[in-house]
Design a protein that fits this description.
The structure is a homodimer of 201-residue chains. Chain A is α/β, with parallel strands linked by helices and 201 residues long. Helix content of chain A is 45%, strand content 10%. In chain A, helix 1 crosses helix 2. The termini of chain A are far apart.
Chain lengths: 201, 201
């Protein structure tokens, strides 16, 4: 028996979040109720605002603050002028690359990859929009930063072929041993890739 | 650079929850935005309702659905009639005991323990309310289920002394080797307790 039906509802509801099961949800619920009511209410308001307003950037299909408004990366002149476009699968990939502080161009988010078995072809993935953007913007280079999976690689090849046909420089991010990684703990395929694509010193 | 200031605000705000750092918060934010907008909005509404309404039960100081309303456990006649009171430190302790399905009486939640160094004496902890409740309700037994810490044990002794002075049966939950636990992985103090308080077979 629980002391409060509303508390049960809260614990159930918190499990909407990925990685939050009954135990974590209880811990969060009690922490918010015991010590963080004001911050919890603020968080609920922020979640509501974000989920209601955050929309898709018309330029890159990444998240932007509101409907029809360009995202902050597309709106930045110096980034647009770099003339380099990086194609990724998800908005979280954009964030990962931004966190690495090693890219200063603009992005295009596919929100997936080619997957004929699920009925996702070039059109469903919006590749026509990407191709139009590539042709119209005369990019100096298109960087493909898609997942190193069969579907990701197929999607990369498809986009690369288009770029080559239009004489646009296209590249793919490197595969290999992670920085700080030991050879022993790296899987066979990654090690094979890092040998095949070794670079002269 | 982030694509959306509102997304940044969401990721920061989610870190209000215990155990949620920047990486987990990003994962949650993207999952809610990508696939669970409706459920996320529902969750935000539930958090708001719960943090606004959940209040303290006048009977046991556990959480109840709203101000001045008894919690569901205190409101249950069969539990009140059992005549057994279990004293715990926190509402999550109540939930843990309820989950074990091995207790059918009512509770009293102290929301802490005696801690003279922090200025928390008998009055601050509301022990006068507990003592009044114990005397007025003629309990058959008072079970102390407080933490097995120095402060928890001091609080237990304080309550036990009161009960003994008023000829009320008082007991303390057992300490020992956890069920399914191996002796090797149990700490020395627990093992010493389990030997001292061995029971005849």
């Amino acid at each position: 028996m629980s002391s409060s039906a509303l508390l049960d509802k809260l614990i159930n509801s918190l499990q909407t979040m990925p990685g939050v099961g009954p135990v974590t949800a209880s811990r969060i619920a009690f922490a918010l109720l015991d010590k963080k009511r004001a911050q919890g209410l603020e968080m609920a308001e922020t979640i509501k605002q974000a989920l209601t307003n955050i929309s898709s950037c018309p330029g890159c299909h990444n998240y932007s603050d509101s409907e029809g408004v360009e995202c902050e990366i597309c709106a930045c002149a110096s980034r647009r002028e770099s003339g380099v476009l990086c194609v990724v699968e998800t908005p979280s990939d954009v964030q990962a690359i931004e966190d690495s502080k090693s890219f200063n161009g603009t992005y295009f988010v596919l929100h997936g990859h080619l997957s004929p078995i699920d009925g996702i072809g070039a059109k469903e993935l919006g590749l026509d929009v990407l191709f139009e953007k590539i042709v119209n913007n005369h990019y100096k280079e298109v960087i493909l930063a898609l997942s190193q999976t069969i579907e990701g690689n197929a999607t990369s090849s498809f986009i690369a072929n288009f770029c080559k046909r239009h004489d646009i420089i296209v590249s793919k991010i490197a595969s290999g041993v992670p920085v700080g990684g030991e050879l022993m703990s790296v899987d066979q395929n990654t090690l094979a890739m890092s040998l095949n694509y070794r670079r002269p010193l």
